[in-house]
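Re-running the complex after MR caught last week's input typo. The corrected sequence lines follow. Everything else is unchanged.
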Amino acid sequence: TKTCRNYTIPLTVASNNLIFGLPKFLTEFDVADWVDVITNRNPAIAGSLICGAENVTAKCSISATFCQPAKGEITRTRRLCWWLPMVLAYWDPPALDKSKYSFVEHAISQGYSVFYYDRLGVGESSLVSGYVSQLSNRISILTQLTKLVKQGLYVGDLGKPDKVVLLGHNFGSSAVFEAVSADIGLADGVVLTGFSVNKTYLNGIDTGEALGVRIAALQSPKKWAKLDSGYLTSVDVYSNVAIFFKAPDYDPAIAGYSEATKQPASVMEFLTSQAIGANPPLKYKGVAMIISSKFDFPWCTGDCDAILENPGAEYFRGTKAFKAVSYPGAGHGLNLHLNAKGSFEEITDFLSANGL
Ligand SMILES: *[C@@H]1O[C@H](CO)[C@@H](O)[C@H](O)[C@H]1NC(C)=O
Ligand SMILES: *[C@@H]1O[C@H](CO)[C@@H](O)[C@H](O)[C@H]1NC(C)=O
Ligand SMILES: *[C@@H]1O[C@H](CO)[C@@H](O)[C@H](O)[C@H]1NC(C)=O
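Corrected-run output:
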């Protein structure tokens, strides 16, 4: 049903990076202490984790895949952007039933083309220190890749797409949100999944605690020896489930698959993931959707009802169309729940109803 091509895309990334304020972790005891520090209610203590910022320019390469429907007219290109613990497994899980769990497959079936990529430090994309990989450099990567795709590069023989939608999950949504705040003409549409702008209920901090974070390279040297100690991961499948899944709306075998194919997150991702800098309303004028699982823990402290639009609607007041969906029967890892397909339909129905 689709034809795909893989790319390795060289980029020069200039960003203003926050500097990690503690010594680099040597042992799991250091990580345990870091969890104590980030969860401290005293902002002066939690604030000690960052000691300034620096402008950095670095070269990197990003591995990307572009897929388009094998037949029929192609008029649309959608971009996907990365989230925390999984790689290709999240948008297009190789070993799962694609008719249920693959957003890419669904989008292709609706006539969209899809460009998606591995985040920095994951898969074939460049390896950088976990003390460096953070929101600022991700925004730069996303913005540059979007501009390249809009020029018709890295999209097979598609040519210049006439419409571009940016789709992210979790950290990827933060990057999309900040990218269109800063560059208002970057996209025609944005879809922010596993995300919220209601700061009252953001809970990235306790997420680190619930995940029982461990140093990835120590947990599985076979998989992650190349990563420095700034890359962290969930302690086991149950802590993964505590954050990403909601009973009874998932298949435990899928949770096991998620744990087996998970990818670590950098310590600076944890610290910058929910750093929403822009104030409402954004100047961005395209179409916008926030769709998060009703039971999302990191962004809604377990209940997204009535908070995604407050103040989401205020941020997106100037847009052509805005919709907030608290999607029932799922936890933070929306795409891995039994009803994932319904959320894919919500997304493409909303886009096509608004000319995308
Ligand atoms: C792209 O890379 C993936 C992962 O390495 C591989 O499974 C797939 O076959 C490649 N696709 C093409 C079209 O080369
Ligand atoms: C760092 O970059 C920002 C813009 O991103 C600029 O305003 C600032 O002056 C730069 N700082 C230094 C020390 O170059
Ligand atoms: C979050 O949503 C609740 C419920 O709608 C609202 O009372 C609260 O003011 C919102 N928080 C922010 C920071 O807007």
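None of the earlier attempt is carried over here. The chain is about 35% helix and 25% strand. Residues 2-353 form a domain with the Rossmann fold fold (CATH 3.40.50.1820).
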